Amino acid sequence: MDTPPLYPQFPWESDLPSEGKHSLLLKAENRLTLELMKLEKLAATELGKRHIQFGLIYRVRMLQHSRIHIRDFFIEHPPRSRALCNGEVEEINFYVNGFYMVLCGALDNAAWTITSEMKLFPAPSEYDTASRKFCSLNSAKFSAELKKHLPAAHARIQASSEWLRVLKDLRDPVAHRIPTYIAPAVLHEPELANMRSLEKQASDLFKEERFDEGMEKWHESVNVGVFMPMILHETGKKERITLLAPGLIEHDQALFLDLLGSLTHQITHSLSPHSVNPYEHAENIGSYLNQKSGQW
Description:
mainly alpha, 11 helices, 6% strand
């Protein structure tokens, strides 16, 4: 079935207030969960059912939880506010790293589901190396087979190829090398000198066993600078800094929901040709939600 992409660019750069974006995403996440539940009942293979029920559905819910937690964190810690303390640094890094790991895992679940249900690979198995290499949206062999069986789904994935590459840059270091890192604060040269001076004073006081005074100086040192949500991450042999504006997670979640929503419809239609595409009369998921929100 040849249908155009749902939308190549989510209208996230618009002036829609943060609360409005949050509301749209909640509805889209919940709607997609329902569509996946329907697809799970249509799935003909145990492997496909497994990757929908225990992969895609679980991951969509986990992504929703992570997105909301990160959103709430930024409400409490807006850019240019005080430096983060140790517990806060670990918290935001845990959720951001986890978000991208789970998102990329969901895309792999989609590839396994499509491969199994569309019979793109003979007897795919999670324990077989060739199967694991094949079942990826970035796999050339998967792409070639998908184009033969579901050309519209293939076109939709190709439209997202650059975004998928960026996701790989964010996910691979977390899984295999060094996790991405959001620093507690950004410091200019004078602030850096001040922080080092306070750290030395704290160290000297600890050596003199003046622990209470040393802790006071140490607390002063960690509060130097302001919080700027920047991700430091590897891309191959290089390091890159990405500004983690509060809208970045929302933007990536929106693109993910649109891509997975489109693929879910393509598979559902292939398994049940008379099924209705909930998005077919909408330019994008945002306008669809605006049209349908009163019915939910």
